[in-house]
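TA notes, week 10

Several of you asked for a full example with nothing omitted. So below is the full record: C-alpha cells for the whole chain, then the designed sequence directly under it. When grading your own attempts, check the secondary structure regions first.
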C-alpha cells in the first residue's frame, strides 16, 4: 500500500472541519514514528510508514495491527483513555474519519487529557514527590508481574545481549536523526545509554543471576 496520501491527509486533519465532533482548533504534535492531532476532547495518532528494523509500519496492514496492539496494551494501564482504532477512507478526493469505503489509513483515537496532568507539568510545578513515584513503581511492578513470562527463544539473558540490542536500536535510528528527531538529543541519549551500561555491568549481572529479567 502506497503512503503518498499521508501529506494530503495530514493537511486535512489540521482543519477543525475534518472532525465529526466539535473542534475549535487542532494542535499537531510529531514524534519520529507518529503524527498526533489534538482536536478538542479527542486525540488521533497516525503511524508513519517507517521501517526501523525494530518496527515496521510500511504497510497499511501493519499500521492497523500495531494501532490495535497499542490500544489493547495501554488500556491495561489506563481507564477510558484509549478508545478505539478508527479507519480513514477517501471519498471524492476528501479524507473522512469512519467514512464509507475501504480505509486508506488508521488512527488510534484517544481521549484528550489536560496538559496540567502531564508528568512534565507536574514535575515543573513541584508536585511530584516520593509518594507519587512509589505509587507509580508499585503500579508498574504489578503490571509486569501479570505479564507473560515467555520471551523469544534466542534472547539470552546476558549483559552483552542487552548492550548489543541498545546499540542496534541507535544504529537503526541514526539515519533519521535530524529529520524526525533532534540530532543533538539523539547523540546525548546514545552517549548516556552507553555510559550507563558500561558503569553498571556488575549490577546487570547480579540482576540476571537473581532472575530479575
Amino acid at each position: 500500500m502506497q503512503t503518498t496520501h499521508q501529506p494530503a491527509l495530514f493537511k486535512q486533519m489540521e482543519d477543525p472541519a475534518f472532525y465529526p465532533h466539535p473542534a475549535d482548533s487542532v494542535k499537531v504534535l510529531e514524534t519520529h514514528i507518529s503524527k498526533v492531532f489534538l482536536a478538542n476532547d479527542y486525540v488521533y495518532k497516525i503511524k508513519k510508514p517507517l521501517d526501523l528494523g525494530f518496527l515496521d509500519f510500511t504497510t497499511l496492514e501493519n499500521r492497523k495491527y500495531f494501532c490495535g496492539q497499542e490500544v489493547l496494551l495501554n488500556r491495561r494501564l489506563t481507564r477510558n483513555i484509549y478508545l478505539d482504532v478508527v479507519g480513514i477512507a477517501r471519498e471524492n478526493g476528501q479524507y473522512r474519519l469512519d467514512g464509507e469505503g475501504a480505509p486508506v489509513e488508521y488512527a488510534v483515537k484517544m481521549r484528550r487529557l489536560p496538559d496540567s496532568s502531564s508528568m512534565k507539568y507536574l514535575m515543573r510545578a513541584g508536585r511530584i514527590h516520593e509518594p507519587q513515584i512509589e505509587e507509580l513503581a508499585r503500579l508498574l511492578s504489578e503490571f509486569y508481574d501479570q505479564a507473560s513470562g515467555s520471551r523469544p527463544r534466542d534472547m539470552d539473558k546476558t549483559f552483552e545481549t542487552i548492550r548489543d540490542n541498545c546499540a542496534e536500536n541507535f544504529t537503526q535510528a541514526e539515519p533519521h536523526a535530524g529529520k524526525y528527531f533532534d540530532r543533538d538529543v539523539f547523540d546525548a541519549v546514545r552517549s548516556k545509554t552507553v555510559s550507563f551500561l558500561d558503569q553498571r555491568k556488575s549490577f546487570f549481572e547480579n540482576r540476571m543471576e537473581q532472575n530479575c529479567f
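The mean pLDDT is 89. Use that as a sanity check on your answer.
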